[in-house]
């Protein structure tokens, strides 16, 4: 048997709402933000920076090679030739798309890293001159 809330106008607060009011949402928001790495100056390894595009390039290359094998099977095999002719180009195009996306992603990350280094350098110069 459930007990309904005593006052529908919200004058009597539940423990959950008291918790929400007591928590410091601004500090929680800053801690959980995605741009936390901007505030911390910990250097990251090259693998931490480039692991996503490297994975995309390697998966794209593997799918592209698989598409080449399937396409070449359509020339060699006489059984299921239509299936190979349909699937081969699909894997070729998908692999090529992933490969190109990964290869374009790498220079973008390099450019962002250079901009971040320049920004940190300018911030340190600004703080050096204005904090004296």
Automatic annotation (TrEMBL):
Its main location: membrane. It is found in: Membrane. It comes from the Eukaryota. It is a multi-pass membrane protein. The keyword Transmembrane helix applies. GO terms for molecular function: phosphatidylinositol bisphosphate binding; transmembrane transporter binding. The chain crosses the membrane at residues 53-70, 90-109. Pfam families: PIRT. Keywords: Membrane, Transmembrane, Transmembrane helix. GO terms for cellular component: plasma membrane. InterPro entries: PIRT (IPR028068). PANTHER family: PHOSPHOINOSITIDE-INTERACTING PROTEIN, PHOSPHOINOSITIDE-INTERACTING PROTEIN FAMILY MEMBER. This is PIRT protein. It comes from Circaetus pectoralis (black-chested snake-eagle). The lineage of its organism: Eukaryota, Metazoa, Chordata, Craniata, Vertebrata. The gene is Pirt.
């Amino acid at each position: 048997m459930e007990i309904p809330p005593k006052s529908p106008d919200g004058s009597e607060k539940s423990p959950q709402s008291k918790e929400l009011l007591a928590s410091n949402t601004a500090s929680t928001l800053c801690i959980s933000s995605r741009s936390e790495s901007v505030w911390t100056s910990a250097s990251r390894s090259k693998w931490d920076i480039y692991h996503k595009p490297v994975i995309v390039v390697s998966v794209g290359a593997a799918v592209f090679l698989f598409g080449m094998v399937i396409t070449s099977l359509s020339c060699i095999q006489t059984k299921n030739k239509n299936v190979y002719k349909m699937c081969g180009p699909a894997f070729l195009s998908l692999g090529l798309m992933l490969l190109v996306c990964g290869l374009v992603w790498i220079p973008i990350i390099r450019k962002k890293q250079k901009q971040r280094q320049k920004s940190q350098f300018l911030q340190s110069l600004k703080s050096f001159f204005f904090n004296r």
